[in-house]
Specification:
Helix content is about 40%, strand content about 20%. It is of the alpha/beta class and about 400 residues long. A hairpin with a 2-residue loop joins strand 2 (about 40-45) and strand 3. Bound molecules: adenosine-5'-triphosphate (ATP) and magnesium ion.
Length: about 400
């Protein structure tokens, strides 16, 4: 069946009161941006508090469906058969054709008609339409029966100014909020399982993403960096273009390694990552930092450790996985397509410098004392790292 239109459903935006237009516009923009890469010509319009994607040319149904499924803010979408108004009898006939083509198996199905007459000069009112179309379909198709409470098929008919919409199928979307409506966040992106998925989850709440990756050549390889680029690209499918800052962390890491107690390496390293990430975040209009941390997962993710890393920055740090089990994180990573890449075995900079027995309950005073030893080098080291920031613009469509 040729669907000439898709009705876009958005749950949460609808309750945004005065801001509703802002959210709708952001969603429309995002749909347009995404469909640019799908073959065919589409018009995305707002109409009577709804968003429609109208196809102006031939298109591939699977491709459009796939694209719409990546867009945050779309709760669900319905492929719509649009017909012209040629009277009620024709409407009945077209509805029957729709049912036949949509449910070609002709296996027993329950249904309910839900008609809405937005244009009041249509000669049949909604109640009568429900009854009459229902009776007509029952009469034509022996495999149909009515269930008004919990039907398999909720068949909607909408009489509108320009045309009539017939639809029943609802395809689940990503949910969440349209990109950009929550501003932009700086994702600390490693090559692991957690941080890419954390970026995805926060972006789903309406954040554009920038990302920062700390690498430590020659201790970490070019392949480890490429893995992070690949991960960013997979997330950009949902989150839009991501500017990835690659920061050379080797000198800072070596300095920490030489000057600080080894059981504190990880925590001090994490603090420097956060400091630098916050600096880049502020320079790039990011209102928050995002990490993949999960309470208790490793030594640097106890409450004391998180508190210790947290105190070096003032931007809010979003940790969407704080309460998630590893298996739950993995299932999200699998769903969004990052898992396979994340488990490739290239070392990241943390695994090479880890101590055998890292502190699990660091005290802030003690850590600050250890960091004192770096104080005269610190400024120059950070400055150099920032000056050599390699910025890559990463997009799914490149
Ligand atoms: P992940 O699976 O995201 O690597 P993890 O469980 O391995 O997380 P850690 O290695 O302790 O945890 O890192 C905690 C968080 O710090 C990561 O989720 C990520 O946000 C950030 N991070 C760690 N290493 C790096 C890095 N090399 N570059 C950028 N961010 C990093
Ligand atoms: Mg890691």
């Amino acid at each position: 069946m040729k669907f000439s239109s898709f009705l876009i459903k958005y749950a949460e935006i609808a309750i945004k009161g005065g801001n509703r237009k802002y959210f709708e516009n952001a969603l429309v923009t995002q749909i347009r941006n995404t469909l640019k890469y799908v073959e065919g010509e589409f018009r995305v319009i707002r109409e009577n508090g709804r968003i429609y994607v109208n196809a102006l040319s031939d298109y591939d149904f699977e491709e459009v469906t796939k694209a719409l499924k990546t867009i945050f803010g779309i709760y669900a979408f319905c492929p719509v058969l649009r017909i012209e108004d040629h009277g009620f009898e024709d409407l009945e006939e077209q509805t029957a054709r729709y049912m036949e083509e949509m449910y070609p198996e002709k296996e027993p199905l329950t249904f309910k008609v839900e008609a809405r007459r937005a244009r009041k000069d249509f000669p049949v009112d909604s109640q009568t339409m429900n009854r009459e179309v229902g009776a007509y379909l029952l009469d034509r198709f022996s495999w149909l029966s009515v269930d008004v409470h919990d039907p398999d098929v909720l068949l909607r008919i909408e009489i509108r100014d320009e045309n009539i919409n017939i639809y029943s199928r609802e395809i689940k979307g990503q949910g969440g909020m349209p990109l950009g409506t929550a501003g932009k966040g700086m994702l600390l992106l490693s090559g692991g399982i957690d941080s890419p998925a954390a970026g995805y989850l926060m972006s789903k709440r309406g954040l554009f993403l920038d990302a920062v990756y700390f690498h430590a050549p020659p201790y970490t390889s070019e392949r480890a960096k490429q893995k992070v680029v690949d991960l960013a690209r997979i997330i950009s499918r949902y989150a839009g273009t991501i500017r990835l800052h690659v920061i050379n962390f080797t000198d800072i890491q070596m300095a920490i390694y030489e000057m600080c107690p080894h059981e504190e390496l990880t925590i001090i390293m994490r603090r420097y990552m956060m400091r630098i990430a916050e600096h880049i975040a502020r320079e790039n209009d990011c209102g928050c930092l995002i990490t993949g941390e999960s309470l208790g997962q490793v030594a640097s993710q106890t409450t004391d450790s998180l508190s210790c890393t947290n105190e070096v920055c003032t931007l809010p740090v979003f940790r969407p996985f704080i309460a998630f089990d590893k298996l739950e994180i993995i299932s999200i990573a699998e769903r969004i397509g990052t898992y396979e890449t994340s488990i490739l075995p290239y070392e990241d900079c943390c695994t090479i410098f880890v101590a055998k027995h890292p502190v699990t309950h660091p005290r802030s005073e003690k850590i600050k004392e250890s960091e004192e030893k770096l104080k005269d080098k610190e400024e120059a080291l950070i400055k150099e790292a920032l000056e050599n920031d390699e910025v890559l613009s990463i997009s799914w469509h490149d």
